[in-house]
């Protein structure tokens, strides 16, 4: 059944191939190609808005400036300064012993006086009848009775008495002013408003862009028909018109849900501050509650206790009787006078020296007063006061003043667009007429690309090789196959993957040069098509291995 189906399909393909018109007047040795020209696609840039324009708000905070202001913290006042009293020292005399009198005893003195004492009185004698005499004793006052004054000295006593050394005076005492403090309120800081930016909100979205629409292309099978009688196996290959699905790209986009706004909030909210205004501050002022006055303070007199002797009883005298001094003497006294003739007999006298006592007397001697010179301080000028002006005191306080309130700066953030390149069908492809091509292009042509071992990176020399050989062939609008090979070192699977990466590297470079990817087929054959004996287990030189690490291209039909 399967064999019959293949036979029928081969027949149909043969009929289709032979139904094609062959080139007219072909020349021997020439090669011709009748290609199915691909649809001509052009790249068209489509701009997708992935992010819409929106407003971006930034806040400029309020500007403040600091202002210095002078305020009175202590009012002008006066203070009283005492002008002290002027004192001078004066000397004064204090009688420490009053004037008195003393009686000075004038002692008694004696005077010697010569007195003729009749020791024998004159008598008469009678002759013949002598008188009768007898001796009698008698007293003679040798010192008559007298008196002497005995001094009764004055009676003195020591008394304390107070002497004023400094007279009583007065001084003025300043009662200083009584100060109090007064708290004054001032606006220390002004407040503006704060701005809170509510940024724009976005919601994610996406947009599907068809970069390449769905197409179909002819694809030749790799396996020829089993009953192919032609010597060229390509004549018996199946051609299938296969659908190529559309290629889409999903672009993530952002939709603007709500644009940016802002909320203005006062920096000072009296309601939130208990009803009080914000930014208020206080400073303390020193004020006079009671002005300074003075009070008179009596300064008592300064006294000094001095002792002085005072005569309590003045001196007197008392009379002391001095008895007379007598001396007993004898004398002859005629008892019987003579009776005869009287013959006067003169009296016999005797000179007696006697001491006459002059009694003691007193004389008054003045005792001068005893004085002492002392010093005392006397107030010449009483104390006074003078008012001294106290200037007011000021202090500098700092206030923060709002110069510019906060504001919102609006910046429009432009929409972000993304340019997506999509392929747009420009010309529908189809069978072309027969076109002469170089026969060598139908075969595999080597590109002189020396791949580094295990590498799939194009060097500068490799890119120059592609520019010189491959790009000119593609300029005629043909399609090419890029075939890449490796040496036998390494596993077959890893070599296949490495060769595919190398072929794709060349393909990517061609696409970067503007060649449509639909005109390029890249194949990696790994180590399946070695050009020499250097298979697994065979020892070869590096040069021999390099010959297998090759990349080729050939023109293919579609």
Morphology: rod-shaped
- Most strands sheet: 4 strands, mixed
Number of helices: 5
Helix content: 10-25%
Stretches where pLDDT falls below 50 for ≥5 residues?
1-20
- The first-to-last residue Cα distance is 30 Å
Query: Compute the gyration radius: what is it?
Result: 84 Å
Query: Would you tell me the structural class of the helices and strands?
Result: mainly beta
Give the tally of β-strands: 40
Mean pLDDT: 77
Instruction: State which percent range the strand residues make up.
Output: over 45%
The order of strands across the largest sheet is 37-40-38-39
Question: Would you kindly provide a written description of the structure presented here, covering whatever features stand out?
Answer:
It is built from 5 helices and 40 strands. Helix content is 12%, strand content 59%. The chain is mainly β. The radius of gyration is 84 Å and the shape is rod-shaped. Residues 1-19 form the signal peptide.
Summarize the structure.
This protein is mostly beta strands and 558 residues long. The strands form 19 sheets. Strands 37-40-38-39 form a 4-stranded mixed β-sheet. Strands 1-36 form a two-stranded antiparallel sheet. It has a two-stranded antiparallel ribbon with strand order 2-35.
């Amino acid at each position: 059944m399967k064999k019959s189906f293949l036979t029928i399909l081969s027949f149909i393909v043969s009929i289709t191939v032979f139904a094609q018109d062959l080139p007219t007047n072909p020349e021997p040795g020439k090669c011709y190609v009748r290609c199915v020209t691909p649809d001509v696609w052009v790249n068209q840039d489509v701009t997708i808005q992935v992010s819409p324009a929106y407003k971006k708000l930034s806040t400029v905070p309020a500007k403040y400036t600091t202002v210095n202001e002078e305020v009175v913290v202590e009012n002008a006042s006066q203070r009283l300064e005492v002008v002290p009293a002027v004192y001078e020292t004066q000397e004064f005399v204090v009688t420490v012993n009053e004037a008195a009198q003393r009686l000075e005893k004038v002692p008694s003195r004696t005077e010697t006086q010569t007195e003729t004492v009749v020791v024998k009185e004159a008598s008469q004698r009678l002759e013949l009848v002598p008188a009768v005499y007898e001796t009698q004793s008698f007293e003679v006052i040798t010192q008559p009775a007298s008196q002497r004054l005995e001094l009764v000295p004055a009676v003195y006593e020591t008394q304390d008495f107070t002497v004023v050394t400094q007279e009583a005076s007065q001084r003025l005492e300043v009662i200083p002013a009584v100060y109090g403090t007064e708290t004054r309120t001032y606006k220390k800081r002004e407040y503006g408003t704060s701005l809170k930016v509510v940024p724009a909100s976005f919601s994610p979205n996406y947009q599907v862009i068809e970069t390449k629409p769905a197409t179909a292309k002819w694809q030749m099978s790799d396996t020829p028909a089993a009953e192919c009688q032609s010597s060229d196996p390509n004549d018996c290959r199946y051609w299938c018109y296969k659908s190529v699905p559309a290629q889409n790209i999903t672009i993530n986009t952002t939709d603007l849900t709500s644009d940016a706004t802002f909320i203005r909030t006062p920096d000072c909210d009296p309601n939130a501050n208990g009803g009080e205004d914000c930014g208020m501050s206080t400073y303390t002022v020193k004020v006079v509650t009671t002005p300074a006055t003075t009070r008179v303070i009596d300064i008592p007199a300064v006294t000094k206790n001095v002792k002085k002797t005072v005569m309590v009883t003045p001196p007197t005298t008392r009379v002391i009787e001095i008895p007379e001094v007598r001396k007993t003497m004898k004398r002859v006294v005629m008892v019987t006078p003579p009776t005869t003739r009287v013959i006067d007999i003169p009296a016999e006298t005797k000179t007696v020296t006697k001491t006459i006592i002059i009694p003691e007397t007193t004389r008054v001697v003045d005792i001068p007063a005893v004085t002492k010179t002392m010093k005392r301080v006397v107030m010449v000028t009483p104390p006074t006061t003078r008012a001294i002006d106290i200037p007011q005191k000021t202090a500098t306080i700092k206030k923060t003043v709002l110069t510019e309130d906060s504001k919102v700066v609006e910046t429009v953030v432009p929409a972000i667009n993304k340019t997506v390149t999509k392929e747009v069908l420009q010309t529908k492809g189809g069978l072309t007429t027969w076109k002469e091509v170089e026969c060598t292009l139908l075969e595999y042509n080597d590109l002189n690309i020396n791949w580094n071992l295990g590498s799939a990176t194009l060097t500068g020399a490799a890119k120059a090789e592609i520019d010189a050989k491959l790009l000119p062939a593609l300029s005629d609008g043909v399609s090419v196959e890029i075939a890449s090979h490796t040496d036998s070192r390494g596993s077959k699977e890893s070599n296949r993957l490495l060769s595919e990466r190398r072929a794709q590297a060349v393909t990517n470079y061609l696409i970067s040069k503007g060649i449509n990817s639909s005109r390029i087929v890249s194949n990696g054959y790994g180590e399946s098509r070695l050009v020499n004996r250097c298979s697994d287990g065979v020892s070869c030189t590096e040069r021999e291995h390099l010959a297998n690490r090759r990349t080729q291209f050939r023109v293919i039909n579609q």
